[in-house]
Design a protein that fits this description.
heterodimer; A: 204 residues; mainly alpha; two-stranded antiparallel ribbon; B: 87 residues; alpha+beta; two-stranded antiparallel sheet; 4 helices; 2 strands; 13% strand
């Protein structure tokens, strides 16, 4: 395989894999990433969020939040495909969108960098130190900075993958495609928040 | 490959004459090129394969080693091209 082919596979594997096959591979990767993230006290929620929970994180809500986030996105992208394109198959949207989450496996692994840091008290300490002008570079501080940089790269990679998943599975391209994609992402987060608040108000 | 556009001004070419190789008869006129001949060679190749596979996008994706939606999108692009030539 040429270097170009490898690069293409990194940001657009969907020209080769889609449908149920992509869903199978993506589902395994998503499950492993949710498990690892939960072990480090984090949940994946919404379109692209990582929620810090701490030691009280458990597997059931971790999986529920991830499934909810994925299904909302798939449903909205599928509806967008039905409205603005023709011949869209549900399994293609489901498969490509699920597989596009594979950078989150690396995000989950990167969570080990900040596993032993209590984020709430860390943010408090940093804010206090910044106001008192006593901010020093600690081991924790460096880990959080590296973690942040890794996440930044992974989120950009994930959005590129997600856009390609949307473009390939729905055949909506160009400026129109970009606008619909951004609107879908925003609506996914709104829908997720609505469902989340509905569930927590009813059951918790 | 059949030239379809003028190398000088890029206007679509017309067929001026056709020749019978057996009796050397030449038919002259001003004929339109068929729509399929106007398509780029890779699209013509796709259409030939598509017909040979009885119009199965699934079989085409196996033959071309591409995913199903990618092949469907390629077909949509060819349809758009054909529609633009027909206008």
């Amino acid at each position: 395989m040429k270097n170009n082919d490898w690069l293409k596979l990194l940001y657009n594997p969907f020209s080769r894999i889609a449908g149920w096959k992509a869903f199978g591979i993506g589902a395994v990767i998503v499950a492993v990433s949710v498990y690892i993230a939960c072990a480090t006290g984090n949940y994946f929620s919404g379109a692209m969020n990582i929620r810090y929970i701490g030691p009280s994180a458990t597997l059931l809500p971790a999986f529920m939040l991830q499934i909810q986030g994925l299904l909302c996105m798939v449903a909205l992208m599928y509806v967008a495909g039905l409205i603005f394109s023709k011949g869209v198959r549900f399994q293609d949207v489901l498969g490509t969108v699920t597989l596009s989450r594979y950078p989150y496996l690396f995000a989950a692994i990167a969570c080990f960098l900040v596993k032993d840091i209590d984020m709430k008290s860390f943010v408090q300490n940093i804010t206090q130190a910044a106001t008192n002008q006593t901010l020093g570079i600690s081991h924790e501080f460096i880990n959080v900075i590296i973690f942040g940089l890794i996440l930044l790269v992974l989120v950009v990679w994930y959005i590129a993958l997600l856009y390609n998943a949307f473009r390939v599975s729905t055949d909506i391209k160009g400026a129109k495609g970009i606008v619909i994609f951004i609107v879908t992402l925003i609506l996914t987060d709104i829908l997720n928040l609505l469902i989340f608040s509905l569930i927590t108000s009813k059951f918790i | 490959m059949l030239p379809c556009y003028c190398p000088s001004c890029k206007t679509q070419l017309k067929v001026k004459s056709l020749l019978c190789e057996k009796c050397e008869t030449e038919v002259s006129g001003k004929y339109h090129l068929p729509v399929l001949a106007l398509l780029p060679p890779q699209y013509q190749d796709f259409i030939l394969k598509f017909v040979k596979h009885s119009g199965s996008l699934k079989d085409m994706s196996k033959e071309l080693n591409l995913s199903y939606p990618t092949v469907r999108n390629l077909l949509n692009e060819i349809i758009k091209n054909i529609e633009s030539y027909e206008k």
